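Retry 2 of 3 after timeout on previous attempt. Resubmitting structure tokens to design endpoint.
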């Protein structure tokens, strides 16, 4: 029988396909138990959603009520209330009738109802009312009532929280903050986001409502010492051999970025026979870059000449010191002010990020592609 590819990318991972994060899991569980609010952010695809779902699974086993709200699809303010209310209903257990009756006990103005979704399944929905403030107060306040009624610790996760910043007014932000503030130690809010500059501004700017609402947890990559044995184990479970050196090469080429480790691992696995060797890894990367070519060409086409030069410079040099050196500026035919301006735009476009005096191209494969053009 054909074995399954042991690597998965592009969706949340759990169980054997989830590597480590032991320290973060422990810390987040402890935060949840003590009602500590947390702001977790990282560049895209570092594994925030996978991590928090793992934490919630464990918290649930301890009897903590967990509410996971994905704000990614919201387009208007009502969507926030609707998504939050349905997430609360999903966290309740029991028959649909029981859930409806429980919701009626904790909502003041929102009216829960049963609907049949497009897939033909029964779901719980709510009838919205006109006044936005009333609705937010109702849905956000219901969690406290729930916690008091059932004497339960509650964990509420808002994934892609930066989405609430897209509206023209900040009334949701303000109202939610004033409610969250009153929730004490029985409820822990976890705000997560991938648009680092947006999330960071929301929680670190003294003029924004969510300033200093909780502990900051910037999620990093996974260390090579954790990822290398993970890659070896993944190949082993699917009957292929790989040396520590070759597994280390995959991790290194993917720059310890969990998504790209899984992506490259998956491409290597498809090509490998019996034992993984260096040529297979190189070939897998080349094929993957060929698949991504049109996406990368589109990105490249949309950049100005200075932005292109700066991006290429970052792919090669990384460190700020090297980038602004006289030699590099001469080699790329760029003025320091032009580099500065381009870097700002590239950060806004989320193509690059800066940490500890170094720039990084968020898409690891784009970095490889740039090195080859
Ligand atoms: N702990 C992990 N172990 C192994 N692979 C992981 C881990 N975390 C993330 N990944 C890989 O990264 C991918 C993205 O993970 P996930 O969706 O959890 O990240 P995210 O930070 O929530 O992404 P986004 O910014 O798109 O919301 C997964 O499909 C998986 O391939
Ligand atoms: Mg996510």
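Retry 2 succeeded. Sequence:
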């Amino acid at each position: 029988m054909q074995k399954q590819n042991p690597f998965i990318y592009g969706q949340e991972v759990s169980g054997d396909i989830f590597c480590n994060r032991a320290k973060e899991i422990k810390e987040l569980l402890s935060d949840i138990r003590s009602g500590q609010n947390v702001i977790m952010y990282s560049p895209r695809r570092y594994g925030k959603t996978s991590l928090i779902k793992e934490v919630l699974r464990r918290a649930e086993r301890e009897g903590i009520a967990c509410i996971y709200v994905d704000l990614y699809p919201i387009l208007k303010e009502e969507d926030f209330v609707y998504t939050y209310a349905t997430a609360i209903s999903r966290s309740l257990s029991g028959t649909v009738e029981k859930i409806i009756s429980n919701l009626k006990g904790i909502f003041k103005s929102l009216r829960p109802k049963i609907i049949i979704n497009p897939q033909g399944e029964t779901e719980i929905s709510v009838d919205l009312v006109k006044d936005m403030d009333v609705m937010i107060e109702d849905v956000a306040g219901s969690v406290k009532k729930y916690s008091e009624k059932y004497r339960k610790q509650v964990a509420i996760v808002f994934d892609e929280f930066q989405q609430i910043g897209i509206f023209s007014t900040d009334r949701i932000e303000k109202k939610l903050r004033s409610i969250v503030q009153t929730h004490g130690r029985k409820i822990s809010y976890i705000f997560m986001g991938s648009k680092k500059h947006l999330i960071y501004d929301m929680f670190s700017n003294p003029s924004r409502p969510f300033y200093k609402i909780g502990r900051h947890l910037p999620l990093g990559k996974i260390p090579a010492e954790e990822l290398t044995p993970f890659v070896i184990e993944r190949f082993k479970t699917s009957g292929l051999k790989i040396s520590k050196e070759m597994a280390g090469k995959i991790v290194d080429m993917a720059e310890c970025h969990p998504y790209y480790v899984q992506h490259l691992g998956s491409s290597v696995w498809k090509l490998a026979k019996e034992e993984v060797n260096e040529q297979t890894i190189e070939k897998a990367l080349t094929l993957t870059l060929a698949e991504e070519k049109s996406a990368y060409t589109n990105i490249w086409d949309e950049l100005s000449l200075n932005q292109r030069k700066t991006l290429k410079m970052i792919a090669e040099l990384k460190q700020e010191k090297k980038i602004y050196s006289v030699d590099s500026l001469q080699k790329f035919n760029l003025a320091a002010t032009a580099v500065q301006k381009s870097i700002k735009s590239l950060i806004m476009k989320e193509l690059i990020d800066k940490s500890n005096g170094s720039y990084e191209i968020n898409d690891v494969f784009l970095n490889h592609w740039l090195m080859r053009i």
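Attempt log closed. The first strand starts at residue 38 and ends at 41.
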